[in-house]
Amino acid sequence: MEKTPDKISSSSEKNEVLNLKETELRLGLPGSEFLDKKATGFSLFGKDLKDENNKNIFSGAKRVFSDAIDGSNKWGLCTNRGSEVDLGKNDVLFSPRGANGGVKNTNILQSSHPAKEVPPQPVEGKKDENGSTASKAQVVGWPPIRSLHKNRLTTNLSRNNDVKGKSESSCLYVKVSMDGAPYLRKVDLKTYCSYAELSSALEKMFSCFTIGQYASHGLRGKEDLNECHLMDLLDRSEYVLTYEDKDGDWMLVGDVPWEMFTDMCKRLRIMKGSEASGLAPRVIEKCKSQN
Amino acid sequence: MVYSFPEEVLEYVFAFLSSDKDRNAVSLVCKSWYEIERWCRRRVFIGNCYAVSPQIMIRRFPEVRAVKIKGKPHFADFNLVPERWGAYVYPWISAMARSYPWLEEIKLKRMVVTDESLELISKSFKNFKVLSLSSCEGFTTDGLSSIAANCRNLRELDLRESEVEDLSGHWLSHFPDNFTSLVSLNMSCLGSEVSFSALERLISRCPNLKTLWLNRAVPVEKLASLLRRAPQLVEFGTGACSTEIRTDIFSNLVEAFSGCKHLKSLSGFWDVVPAYLPAMYSVCSRITKLNLSYATVQSPDLVELISQCSNLKCLWVLDYIEDAGLKALSSYCKDLQELRVFPSDPYSAEPNVSLTEQGLVTVSAGCPKLQSVLYFCRQMSNAALIAIARNRPNLIRFRLCIIEPQAPDYLTLEPLDTGFGAIVEHCKELRRLSLSGLLTDRVFEYIGTHAKKLEMLSLAFAGDSDLGLHHVLSGCESLRKLEIRDCPFGDRALLANAAKLETMRSLWMSSCSVSYGACKLLGQKMPNLNVEVIDERGPPDSRPESISVEKLYVYRTVAGPRADKPDFVWTMDEDGALRFS
Fold first, then answer.
1. Start and end of every F-box domain (chain B) (predicted)?
2. Chain B CB within 8 Å of residue A131 CB
3. pTM score above 0.80
4. B145 secondary structure, DSSP code
5. Where are the alpha helices (DSSP H) in B112-152?
6. The complex's ipTM?
7. Is the pLDDT of residue A162 over 50?
8. A169–B294: do the CB atoms touch at under 8 Å?
């Protein structure tokens, strides 16, 4: 298939400059035309790639011809010089895998079956200034930017879609579960600055689930607060507050300074006292030694 | 007379030779010098892990203390080398574990490193000091745990740009409490948060720590605490600096930085809120290297920072700097030697910033010591290139990436042949060149004629015919690495210059016009080359011989065809047969 006029039209100037004839594309066995033209060499593909209306399609296994797709992407570019490339109606860029169909002068280069398809890597098509749609497909490995660098940039650009559990900036939400409660809650650890505050907040949250006894002992000094709370709890064998740390271990709340706790805490669990018996003795001893 | 020097004296003299070239030259003088030299060579550099085997290396150099090995070809950085292609380090580690018990340093680039390899390293070398994994992959943080736990004398752990499967940040906590030898830590590629208190304690107990590159997960409010524990740092990479600015965080940071009297290099700055940048002003005058390539900060803020860095030698920055910022750079930073400008939004059709060829021209005019350039932009002209060439004949590395493939001179619509021609003609010491834009065979004629010191050339979407490739292969006397994608180069130039390939480290050609038949012929003619056909469409002999191969990687080797090829790689054999692994 030949280039159609609408493809060339907006870049006809350039075509004149570049000697269109030389760049005329034809289909054929890869290399076959080349062999005929040994003496003169050949220019492979159209260089008028700045057609404003161009769309692109890059595919590994798919066919060479592009269908018009939305998006004003200037990258119609042939990747495979080896074969005569047909850029189809619009500029198209396809991976070399699609190129060698082995059929002379006919049709599309056969769709081939690469083990690995060229990943179109659609990127934030939202960036498109024309407001036109769709993600743009790209040439593999072009522009030559390391993927790590790309990922870091795209992470930045799509920060709105960041699905990280906790953001580094302003809040630190962790799930709180209570044994026997039908649903969980979430609290923002950053809004508290001590165990006391956390514990009173939790008591408010879970009061409907018979935690009354858990809460009603008022606040004492930061240092011995947790132990005493837990002492009270344990007196009643009711609940113990535990948390899961970064390593996945379940720990008793209150051992470490508050700051460190907020760093390490991934979720909270209000455990039934009976289940927490393994944890309890340590606390009792601690309290005893302090008294 | 050579014979009158006892061996010990020669060995003593040879110890002053650090360059491989010099040592290789010395080895050629006579047999006894060869013998003496090989016993006292301590550092070995292997530019292509498949060019030689571990056994050969060990046989020749029995007392090595430091190895540096490179694996995949450079284009692997841009996903052009399929997964599982190779470059496994394990065979090297396992051989060295048996033969080099005193090995101290392993530096790898673009290799596949497994946790098993890391564990073996950590257990085999009692005096292990330096592990550098640059652009490597295949390991997890568990492997790092082994290193941390077992390498008692570790000085450097550098993971730059590697792809690590990040299972947890717990690995850092494996450094024992009595471990104090750390000098350099680069964990910037890791995602997970490490235990901050473990990090703090580690830093506090390592008084010789000079280089610390944190990862993104360390928030800006924690930096001050770290810096206060390591005021002797010379290189520092922050984590993300995106926390909303608060006076206390800011003033802590100012104070902490002002305590760092030795800081020369800064990087990190992911998503940095511009208001944090002034916290660094106190160190700017000493800074020689600044990596802002993750800082999505606009030009005026960048200029504010850069204008304080009068001793800046190396700047990596995003194109947010714009032409205006580059102008400021050229007036404030007269010592600048290296500039890299990366694209902030490479995939959009329209430019999102006002960065053009003018910025580079201005820097080339204003910075007399500029020798190394990597520049991404959207337009270029021959006039600009000619100006750059005339301004800066001392350029050594020039890598230009015009984002649109085959973009012509935007003023004249001509190819950029004359522009690049001027570059190679004026810059007689040029060692590395990457071309882009619209280019005909002409530019290769210029390159072949003038670029006599060129060692590495990267081409994409360039040229018209085999003549182009022929010019390069026949003209560039110093060429070691040639990497080509999507150029109409085929059989003739390759076969005509087959002998040249033995003088080079490697040749990469993907999406070009080299037929399978030519590859076979090349493999037959040149037994000292591995001619690897990389083709994911299935065995090449299931297609006619005239069909072009997808990818071709040719490299000289004394180790023969490799035994670890995946199913999409074929080595062209001496007897013309297809060799599978």
1. 5-46
2. no
3. no
4. H
5. 115-124, 141-150
6. 0.87
7. no
8. no
